[in-house]
Amino acid sequence: MANWYALRVVTRQERAVAANLAERDLPFFLPMQTDWAGVPKVKHMDPLLPGYLFVLCDLESAADIIGLQGVINFVRYTANDGVLWPVEFPGSIILGLQIEERAGTYDFTRLVTAPKYRPLKGE
């Protein structure tokens, strides 16, 4: 049975890992935030949780996912028997994150006014 699991990935490699998961037709969710960045300030999208993304899979395909370039491991916990198991996330939590992202909760450009255009010398 497929469940949602969090993957720990190399920071700044989240999009590459997401592309690899998409090539293998594995459902994933990479929550993104929008903010101002750079000079001049432009809208920029970054992962909301740097170094992490969520994947919908079963434990049988876990070895294939860990083998992907940029994937460190699943987020795991130690069970009573001393074995490390991947943490399962309820679908309602992932759905809630998706709803909040689409509703613009993580769009931080709305909190700050857009930068004013200031022409450079000679413009």
Explain how this protein is built.
There is one protein chain. The chain has 123 residues and is an alpha+beta fold. It has helices spanning 14-23, 62-66, 91-102, and strands at residues 3-9, 28-29, 32-37, 42-47, 52-57, 71-74, 76-78, 84-86, 88-89. Strands 1, 2, 5, 6 and 9 form a five-stranded antiparallel beta sheet that branches. Strands 3-4 form a two-stranded antiparallel ribbon. Strands 7-8 form a two-stranded antiparallel ribbon. It is elongated. The mean pLDDT is 92.
Keywords summarizing the entry:
123 residues, alpha+beta, 5-stranded antiparallel sheet, two-stranded antiparallel sheet, 32% strand, elongated
Mean of all residue-level pLDDT scores: 92
Q: Tell me about the biggest sheet?
A: 5 strands, antiparallel
Element string (H = helix, E = strand)? EHEEEEHEEEEH
Class computed from helices, strands and strand pairing: alpha+beta
User: What is the CA–CA distance across the termini?
Assistant: 61 Å
Low confidence ranges:
none
- Number of helical elements: 3
Shape: elongated
DSSP summary, beta strand count: 9
Quote the beta fraction: 25-35%
Percent in helix: 10-25%
C-alpha Rg, in Å? 18 Å
